[in-house]
# Entry
Amino acid sequence: MPPVNPGQIATLQKNSEHIRNICILAHVDHGKTSLSDCLLATNGIISPKLAGRVRYLDSRPDEQLRGITMESSAISLYFKLMRRAAEGEEPVPQEFLINLIDSPGHIDFSSEVSTASRLCDGALVLVDAVEGVCSQTVTVLRQAWIEHIRPILVINKMDRLITELQLTPGEAYTHLSKLLEQVNAVMGGFFAGERMEDDLKWRERSEKRLAKHAADVASADISADAEFVDSGANFEEKDDEDIYFAPEKNNVIFSSAIDGWAFTVKQFAAIYEKKLGFKRSVLEKVLWGDFYLDPKTKRVLGQKHLRGRALKPMFVQLVLETIWAVYDSTVQKRDLERVEKIIKSLNLKILQRELKSRDTKSLLFTIFAQWLPLSTTVLVTVIEQLPSPPVAQKQRMPLILDSAPSTENISPDLRKAMIDFDKSSEAPVVAYVSKMIAVPESELKKNSRVQLSADEMRNAGRLKRQLEARKLAAEAAAEGATVSGHIQIIQQESPEPATEEQSEEGAKTPQTPKEEEAAEEEDKERLIGFARLYSGTVKVGQDLYILGPKYDPSKPTDHIQKIKVTELYYLMGRDLQFLDEVPAGNVFGIGGLEGKLFKNGTLCSLPQGGANLAGISMGGAPIVRVALEPKNPSELQKMVDGLKLLEQADPCAEYLVQSNGEHLLLAAGELHLERCLKDLRERFAKIDIQASAPIVPFRESIAWPTAEAVSTREKSDLPLGTVSASTPTKSFTLRISARPLPPAVTDYLVENSLAIKKLYTEHKERTSLENKKRYEVGEEKADGEDGSPAVGDKGEAPIKAALDENDAMLEAKHARILSLAEFKKGLQAVFDKESPPGEKEIWAGVVDRIAAFGPRRIGPNILIDATGTGLLRPLLSETPQSTRPTSPTNDAPTFDPTPHIHHTFQIVTSAGPLCAEPLQGTAFILESLQRTSTTTDETTTQLRASLLSLLTTTLRKSLEVFSPRLLTATYHLTLLLPPSALGKLYPTITKRRGKILSEELREGTPFFTVSALIPVVESFGFSDDVRKRTSGEVSVQIRWGGYKLLVDEDPFWVPRTEEEIEDWGEEGTRGESVVRRWVEDVRKRKGLFVQGRKLVDRAEGQRTLKR
# Structure
């Protein structure tokens, strides 16, 4: 198929019924880019024989070097298909435009998957036939489910079943059946979770209706004898038939992208329709599954009608055995006679030079290219199975708009235009910009070359020759020479007339420093928006409004700004082609957003009533951080500007400036960090930049001390962990205790961080409303009563909140947000079930006494009010309190200590005693707070200062009696390897302080699947190390594993018994304590005191060397 030119693209973009917007989703190394290469070959962009090896859409050098995709790329493909309008009619040619987006599969770049999925209406989900369902496969399936896009399953690398595993066709069929069951089990899990959520919402609505009916009866609005009819009494079950993959439904493709072939059951049904004499519709239903062909009667039998006969399933007999025979006669055993028989039976035309070629792969590729071409199979299935933009938007837009913020305030005209797919010029324009793409200025040439047809090129060449002949004739006539007959032009030494480009290159002279700066300025990076248009038609020069991710239609003046569209592009992988206008239903690039849109947002032509489509999860959050500084300090501003550009161009990268002036770059993982630093040095800042060692977050916790440690502590009448103290002036007396939370409670709080955040927001709004009512009656508001800190909430705490907010949400990313009643019930149930026997009384009914969570008000630490006076308002109270909490003071009712207690709790939990990392799994119980009335000369400021100092000291002292623990950020590893590599893998994981969770043999394969946890701080270079040690036999899959206690030891442990002293020395310094090393490294980085650290080494007095 010839390459498509921009004019054809512009024409095809207007026929929305013949457009398909699709993305390719899969785990890393499952063959996405190889598949896209085969599709590109249909448009003549690359050679068909190089498909799967060129990796055309991997345009970055580091992508080609590593062999993985790091950035999502888009390309528009042209496909011509003969289709019948109805049965019995002659087929007519129809032209289609396929907007294809290739996305990464590595966990570090999962945010690129999120940006690609909303732009599309369908997805090709690839699964390796050998490796099966992997961690990222589940992630991309979940993303497709969330975005309501229709998936097609592609079981790729089928050739590995033949060449590597050497399975028979029957064994391969069993293996493929189990693989299909695994994928459908994942989809069934998504459906079950959504069904439970819908059932819960239905129950809540029913309870509200019943409560309203009871209230109406109580207020005598209706008669108590009146019959109550609940319109929503019956729960409507959803049909789950369409969510599963089944070959008979034509939504499963079997393929080998590297060998260039693919097929569907429908395709083989068409092949065997005439041979077997069955209808195609019947064959489509029985070619997959436990159906057998009776060789005598030529009838299809079910399994129960076999009567003991050993027949092969039809899929094995008619499909797999033929494919296996081609491989066996070409690649595995060279048998030309058998090859010729197969070619004749399949009615193929193979040239003799291909048959005699020594390259067996070339012959295999030629046979499959004629018999089962991959590109035709995939594109035909995409056109038939995936919806066009008008159909897809009618299904998807109501669900997306209903989940948008303030959906009731969205303009009805805009909603109707998006759902009904109104692409007229009068319709409101709505587009979603998923990310910003950085493109060098030199690649955005407006004078792009126009592609000519063969006739146009021949005419242009003939005219050029005529002009040259006339020019030479005129020159000869001027010199007095007679020109007659045919003029023969011989060009030996004289060069051809220089073209404009050649003359420009020849005119170049060495550049001065100023000219080099000007050239560098011209080749700076430009940011182009990567967008999808849902309604209307966008044109160059049109005015639009940018709606930021925080835009709310109920507040139309916030987070909105006006821009002018400067350029429009359609994307062709590495190239951008200019357009004048883009109708709805297309994926395109848009200019004019630089400096005005950050990462993602919505474009709308209406100043009010717009829909915010940008409030979606962007996948993985950054957890690896490095501090940056320029090698030349004078180039600091260049580095800052480059970091800002990088932050906009990368969906997952973040740039922060700490309070001490340190510039931090946050990335999703080691590979993502490496790519960000490379882009920063070579593209965005273009200067030498020094990066610190990766900064990995930790969490601190406490554990009950041993009996020996308790015996050595100072004798006290107070229970363990309880501290009682007073201010120097005896103004306040405080008693508080600390204790570790049960591990299951900590996990529950981490998983429901989003629910805690929602509860705190509602609590704050409720408190603000009460304060407003109090103002109306003239009551004075106490300092910080709305829950905000009354004093000094600046400095390190906001910085740590910005740094660690994503960490807190990583494990809560896919959790459902619970209601207040559900959260309270679940939390108390975990307390009752998981509490140790001796602590049942302490945690009984504790949920009603929780006053705060921390740090950042969403962390897994709790503050409990056990004073019995209601000093601290319960955070999880379902009934708002209209009165202020009683003050513990008798003579100074105007001073309220509540905000100071909350503020100090947040500070202490945000910086633990080990290395000032956030606490986790700790409960602080406020037992009493009393203020004496003897001292009356203290001002409010003095009272605040003394109380804050007392609270901070007491809270930190209550932790000292416990044994501290350091929780490490971990990666969860899933490793696929042969048995011979197991012995080399375990020492590699153990050396890096990892922990093996499970080891099992994957059914149907000779490979083992090993699950393990490894600290992030020890994970750098792990993938390369394990591949070197196992000679590349291990496939490593890494995902976030949470904060775990992998090394259970006290960093300040001191040996006490004779055996311990003999083994570890008197101070425990003999042998390495890995936790102590981690703690000291963090303390050094933060500038904290480190025991035994030499500040000056080999100090010498000043001496004069002049003598």
